[in-house]
């Protein structure tokens, strides 16, 4: 009777190790996996304990794969690639699934969710939305398309469909604008940790010199928009995120909107032009964003 095989290490530990082997630092691997640096470190430590040997060796201030660690990493990368292709083939041959779309959180909340009904009516597409930003792991998260702003390096292996130039400008509540007779220069400025350069970029592109004003910093971009709507100050907004609130009279844009040097794109691991659903979605969204960027009344 043959001896029982030892139990396999956890899948999470293997994924953490494979990500760490592919990237230069554990911080980068943690970003890829959407977990903390500590979680990746713990998973690798657990894997090394399960295997009974180290997979990395120290070098200077960093560390490198051991020869056996490199062999394991290469094998795992091939296994995960095969698994990804297997699942892709399984989904393709099975019942039609909703198109899975990852979208930056504020754009998802303020624009894309509101567009789902007309999108369905015009195209017949069923969409599954995931709110996320930054680099995308399409295979791990089962994502077909990702909507991103080009404010980080885009993997050149991905297919890219341009959607719209980012258009940004200051917004505030109409009541606050009336109370100050249109003069917004000294009103509190609402900043977001996720777009820390928004005000500086807008002042530079508009040719207006920044004035001294109080600062209120929020963690997320959408919080600055809510604070602006509540009359707490002036925020720099994307026209695509503010359009519905402008149309409803909840926000005012006294200086309009102008390009900030970035743009929104659709990203896909497969050629968008060769997949009807991807192509229809990207083309519809590009038209929708063009409509939203048309000049709005300056309330």
Automatic annotation (TrEMBL):
Signal peptide: none annotated. PROSITE patterns: HTH_LYSR (PS50931). The lineage of its organism: Bacteria, Pseudomonadati, Pseudomonadota, Alphaproteobacteria, Acetobacterales. One of its GO terms (biological process) is DNA-templated transcription. This is LysR family transcriptional regulator. It holds the Pfam family LysR_substrate. PANTHER family: HTH-TYPE TRANSCRIPTIONAL REGULATOR, HTH-TYPE TRANSCRIPTIONAL REGULATOR TRPI. Belongs to the LysR transcriptional regulatory family. The keyword Transcription applies. GO terms for molecular function: DNA-binding transcription factor activity; sequence-specific DNA binding. It comes from Gluconacetobacter sacchari. InterPro entries: LysR-type_TF_proteobact-type, LysR_HTH_N, LysR_subst-bd, WH-like_DNA-bd_sf, WH_DNA-bd_sf. Residues 9-66 form the HTH lysR-type domain. Keywords: DNA-binding, Transcription, Transcription regulation.
């Amino acid at each position: 009777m043959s001896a029982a095989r030892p139990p396999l290490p956890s899948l999470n530990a293997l994924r953490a190790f494979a990500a760490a082997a592919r990237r230069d630092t554990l911080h980068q691997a943690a970003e890829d996996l959407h977990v903390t640096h500590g979680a990746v470190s713990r998973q690798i430590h657990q894997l090394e304990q399960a295997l009974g040997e180290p997979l990395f060796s120290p070098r200077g201030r960093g560390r490198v794969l051991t020869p056996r660690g490199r062999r394991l990493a290469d094998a795992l990368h091939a296994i995960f690639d095969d698994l990804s292709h297997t699942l892709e083939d399984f989904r393709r041959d099975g019942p039609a699934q909703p198109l899975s779309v990852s979208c930056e959180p504020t754009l998802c909340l303020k624009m894309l969710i509101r567009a789902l009904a007309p999108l369905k009516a015009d195209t017949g597409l069923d969409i599954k939305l995931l709110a996320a930003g930054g680099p995308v792991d399409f295979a791990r998260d089962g994502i077909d398309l990702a909507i991103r702003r080009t404010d980080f390096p885009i993997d050149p292996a991905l297919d890219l469909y341009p959607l719209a130039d980012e258009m940004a400008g200051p917004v505030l509540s109409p009541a606050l604008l009336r109370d100050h007779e249109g003069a917004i220069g000294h009103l509190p400025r609402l900043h977001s940790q996720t777009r820390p350069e928004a005000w500086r970029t807008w002042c530079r592109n508009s040719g207006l010199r920044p004035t001294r004003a109080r600062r209120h910093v929020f963690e997320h971009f959408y919080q600055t928009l809510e604070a602006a709507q509540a009359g707490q100050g002036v925020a720099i907004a994307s026209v695509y995120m503010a359009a519905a609130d402008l149309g409803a009279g909840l926000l005012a844009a006294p200086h309009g909107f102008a390009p900030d040097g970035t743009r929104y794109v659709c990203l896909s691991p497969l050629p968008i032009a060769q997949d009807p659903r991807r192509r229809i979605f990207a083309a519809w969204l590009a038209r929708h964003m063009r409509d939203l960027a048309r000049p709005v009344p300056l309330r």
